[in-house]
Amino acid sequence: MIRVSVVGAKGRMGSHVVKAVEDAEDTQLALALDAGDDLTQITPENTDVVVEFTVPAVSLNNVLTLIKQGVNVVVGTTGWTDEKLDQVRKALIEVRETHGREQSVFIAPNFAISAVLADVFARIAAPYFESAEVIELHHPDKVDAPSGTAIHTAHAIGEARAAAGMEAMPDNTQTDGGSRGQVIDGVHVHAVRLRGLNAHEEVLLGNAGEQLVIRADSFDRVSFMPGVLLAVRKIASHAYPGLTVGLDNFLAL
Can you give the residue ranges of the Dihydrodipicolinate reductase N-terminal domain (predicted)? Predict the structure, then answer.
C-alpha cells in the first residue's frame, strides 16, 4: 500500500484527492492537512507520497518544507514560474548532496488526461500552422490567470515552432488595449473566467483557408483523479528522482 498524505485536504481539489486515495485499492490516506496545520507531522515514517493542492502563494514554501522532511511530493497547485522551479531543483540537489537522499517532486500543470493529450497534440501540430493561439476558460474562483495549463501549452507551441525554424506569427495589431492577451513564447494566451465553467482549453491553429481546433473539457474535478493517482504511483516507484514537470512524462506517448 502507498501511504499518501494530502496537503490542502479541505479544498476543492484536495477533498477529491482524499476520496480518491481512500477509494483506490493500492493507496491509503496517512494524514489530511489543511491551512494552519503543521507540515512537519509528515515524515517518511508515516508517508510515502504527499499530494499538495493549495494556492500559489503558499505552494513553494510547502514543497520546500516537505523536501526537508524527506518525503516525495506530487503537486497540483498551479502558478509555478521558472524561478520557483529552480528553487525546488536546488533544494533537491542539497538534500542529495548533504544527506544522500534521492527525493522526487512532480508538478503537473494539469492532471486531466484530456488536457495533457491536447498539449501533446498542439506541440505536434504547431510546426504545420502559420498561426496559433490559446484560450483557457475556468470558473471565477480560480486565483491565477492565465492557467498553468495554458502557459505550459504556449511554451510547448513556442518550442516546437522555434525548433522548426518558423518566423513570428502574423499580427498587424497596432493598439489592442490588452485584448490580445498575454504573449508567452510568441503565443497569445487568453483567459476567460465565467460562472458555470470548470476547466477548459482551446488551441486554435490556422493556415490560409484552414483551421485546426484542439479542445479539452473537464466538466468535473473528478476528471483529475486518475492523473493524480497515476502520478502518486509513479513517484512512489522511485523511478523519477529529482524534479519532473508534466503528466506526459508518465504516459506512453
Answer: 2-111
Residue 50 has pLDDT above 90, yes or no: yes
Per residue in 43-63, is it b (16+ CB within 10 Å) or e — as a string?
eeeebbbbbbbbeeeebbebb
Q: Please give the positions annotated as active site.
A: 138, 142
C-alpha 104/C-alpha 122 separation (Å) is 28
**Prediction pTM value:** 0.83
Burial of 221 (0-12, 13-18, 19+ CB in 10 A): middle
Residue 126 annotated as lining a ligand binding site: no
Per-residue CA distances from 62 to 21, 65, 77, 98, 139 (Å): 20, 5, 11, 20, 25
Residue with cell 516525495: 72
pLDDT of residue 143: 85
Mean pLDDT, all residues of the chain: 95
d(CA 18, CA 30): 10
**Does 181 belong to an annotated binding site?**
no
- Residue 242: the pLDDT is 95
CA distance 3 to 239: 17
**Residue 10 among known ligand-binding residues:** yes
Domains of the chain: 2-107+222-250 (3.40.50.720), 113-219 (3.30.360.10)
| Contact call for residues 201 and 216 (beta carbons, < 8 A) | yes
